[in-house]
């Protein structure tokens, strides 16, 4: 059970409205091709490609504040590692975990707990989601 994330985002109408975001992470395995979703004013939905699960932030005051999970070896892949589980933390609740949290050789990852919100994702892909990070707008 491994993930590819697609974000349903609301684009920034004006870059002057938000503080310049800072990158946190990526956390996970080394290697893979870098990717970046960009920076947005609001994240309202995250689609996890594992049976097409959707994480909806329905409350107008709910926003994403961080991610956490585990990464580790992919079975039968000669040492290839990837994200095995992920949880999405909002200012209201935690969505997840999605995926496998237990396995030999798994390592925990977690984004910052500083006051702010996630305004985008970045990471690396090796055929699986090998690493994930967040663009943060700090308060």
TrEMBL record:
Sequence intervals crossing the membrane: none
Domain of life: Eukaryota
UniProt entry keywords in alphabetical sequence: Lectin
Positions of the Jacalin-type lectin domain: 21-138
Gene Ontology MF, one: carbohydrate binding
Keyword Lyase (UniProt): no
Keyword 4Fe-4S (UniProt): no
Protein family according to the UniProt entry: Belongs to the jacalin lectin family.
Descriptive protein name: Putative jacalin-like lectin domain-containing protein
């Amino acid at each position: 059970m491994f993930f590819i994330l697609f974000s349903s985002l609301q684009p920034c109408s004006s870059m002057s409205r938000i503080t310049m975001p800072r990158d946190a992470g990526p956390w996970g395995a080394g290697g893979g091709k870098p990717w970046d979703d960009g920076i947005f004013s609001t994240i309202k939905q995250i689609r996890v490609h594992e049976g097409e699960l959707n994480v909806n932030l329905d409350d107008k005051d709910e926003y994403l504040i961080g991610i956490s999970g585990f990464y580790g070896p992919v079975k039968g892949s000669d040492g290839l590692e990837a994200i095995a589980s992920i949880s999405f933390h909002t200012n209201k609740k935690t969505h997840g975990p999605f995926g496998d949290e237990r396995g030999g050789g798994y390592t925990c990852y977690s984004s910052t707990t500083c006051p702010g919100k996630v305004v985008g994702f970045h990471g690396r892909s090796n055929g699986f989601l090998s690493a994930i990070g967040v663009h943060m707008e700090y308060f």
